[in-house]
Design a protein that fits this description.
The protein is of the alpha/beta class. The protein contains 12 helices and 19 strands. Bound molecules: S-adenosyl-L-homocysteine. One of its GO terms (biological process) is cobalamin biosynthetic process.
């Protein structure tokens, strides 16, 4: 295949395509043609199992014989004025195939097919000799139905080295799944029927993980790459926003303490509004969408308004931020359970959450900085030892990660001395002591 080639995709629906040969290579070619909707005829005295199955399933026509001159251009059809009782009456009509694959394993036969194809101007793919072919089949990757890559076809050729082409095709498939390719649809599919039927978009509530760009899930990353609109928070993998195309609308509803937050009601409205315009909306949230993140309310609002919604779980800060600081939330012989609570609503709420927990349970508090003193005092009053170890882990999984260790009795004072600020995860329990041996465990990204 040293000669220049001209990549092209064909619509073979209902068009005659001939496969000469009955072995496994012919079977692969025939099944590809069947998938493409071609009217496939196989010419071979014997069939391998796969081809036999295709014939049995009625997917193609089998001529049980050797190849004959004229097979590419002439076609049998029932003779119109023959005696109706004679089922075998056929006549031959000129109906050239659009494409032929020859894979007989016999050079002289493949030569003959190729020669006749050339004379009749029919493209011919030869299994035995790519250089003697007039057409080549690429290695093909198709975006899976229902994923962000749906509708994409990538075809790879490698100059007569099919294994090399397959290897690249496999890498492309992996990249399609990873969400690192710009797979976003820029042209909407036209509705098949009902002119003007609006295409309704959908909303994906994507958990972005605790902050590092590569702690989002593969599915979340892929949906992000396909999004038309991204509604984002202050927390989560904000670095990924820079990877979005210039025409992707990014709506930042991130609250910073003291700044005007966008109300939850407004966020809900935004999601529905954009989806109704036919957009693919990603609601990118820090951590996991359903852990103290109001993702459930967003999902309910979408459904109540007839907008399809899906959730993509994320790595919650409740577990991953302590881990980054070398604190396992459970550890054999130290703590066999953990409780996650919001400290935002006040100490009462934290006490209620901790009340039924095992005495050794680790307590993980989110949004716990502003009311730390009050919360720690209430826990001591409720019977937790004043010297219970406490860790305050700020900005986990970012370059600014910082951990302050203290105790319930001294937490408020130490936090103030160190200038601890939100976002931080507060960990209360004996597991905090493990940090002395483990130290910081947040490795750096392997891809960055
Ligand atoms: N849905 C999120 C939690 C949202 S509540 C999740 O699953 O992680 C917001 C709180 O999460 C913050 O106040 C803080 O306590 C915690 N948090 C989130 N990301 C954090 C990070 N990178 N470092 C420290 N705390 C974080």
């Amino acid at each position: 295949m040293g000669s220049p080639s001209y990549p092209l995709t064909l619509d073979l629906t209902g068009r005659r395509a001939v496969v000469v040969g009955g072995g496994p290579v012919a079977a692969r070619r025939a099944s590809g043609l069947v998938e493409a909707g071609a009217a496939v005829e196989v010419i071979a005295p014997f069939l391998c199992e796969d081809l036999g199955a295709l014939v049995a399933g009625g997917a193609l026509t089998w001529h049980e014989r050797d190849y004959l001159p004229g097979d590419l251009t002439l076609k049998d059809r029932p003779a119109p004025d023959a005696d109706n009782s004679s089922e075998s009456a056929v006549e031959q009509v000129f109906d050239p195939a659009w494409l032929v694959h020859t894979a007989t394993g016999e050079r002289s036969v493949d030569d003959q097919v190729a020669r006749e194809a050339e004379a009749a101007r029919i493209w011919c793919v030869r299994a035995d000799d790519a250089t003697a072919s007039t057409a080549w089949t690429p290695a093909v990757a198709r975006g899976a139905v229902g994923t962000a890559s749906e509708g994409l076809t990538v075809a790879v050729t490698a100059g007569g080295d099919p294994r090399r082409a397959s290897a690249v095709r496999d890498a492309v498939l992996a990249a399609l799944d990873s969400g690192t390719l710009p797979v976003r649809r820029l042209r909407r599919a036209t509705p098949a029927s009902g002119a003007g039927t609006p295409t309704v978009g959908r909303v994906a509530l994507v958990g972005g993980g605790p902050g590092a760009d590569d702690l989002i899930t593969v599915r979340g990353r892929a949906l992000l790459a396909a999004a038309d609109v991204v509604v984002t928070d202050r927390l989560g993998p904000r670095g990924l926003l820079a990877t979005l195309g210039a025409d992707v609308e990014v709506v930042d509803v991130g609250k910073t303490p003291g700044n005007h937050p966008v109300s939850q009601e407004r966020i809900n409205e935004l999601l529905v509004h954009h989806a109704r315009l036919g957009k693919r909306v990603v609601r990118l949230k820090g951590g996991d969408p359903f852990v103290l993140g109001r993702g459930g309310e967003e999902a309910l609002h979408c459904l109540a308004n007839g907008v399809a919604v899906e959730v993509v779980p994320g790595v919650t800060s409740a577990v991953s931020v302590p881990a980054a600081a070398g604190i396992p939330v459970t550890h054999r012989g130290v703590a066999a359970s953990f409780v996650v609570a919001s400290a935002h609503e006040g100490a009462e709420h934290v006490l209620a959450a901790a009340a039924d927990a095992a005495p050794d349970a680790t307590l993980v508090l989110l949004m716990g900085v502003s009311r730390l003193g009050e919360t720690a005092a209430a826990l001591i009053d409720a019977g937790r030892p004043a010297d219970t170890p406490v860790a305050l882990v700020e900005r986990g999984w970012t370059p600014e990660q910082r951990t302050t260790t203290t105790t319930l009795a001294t937490a408020a004072r130490d936090a103030e001395l160190a200038g601890v600020r939100a976002p931080a995860v507060v960990v209360v329990g004996e597991v905090v002591a493990l940090r002395e041996q483990l130290g910081d465990l947040a490795g750096s990204s392997v891809t960055a």
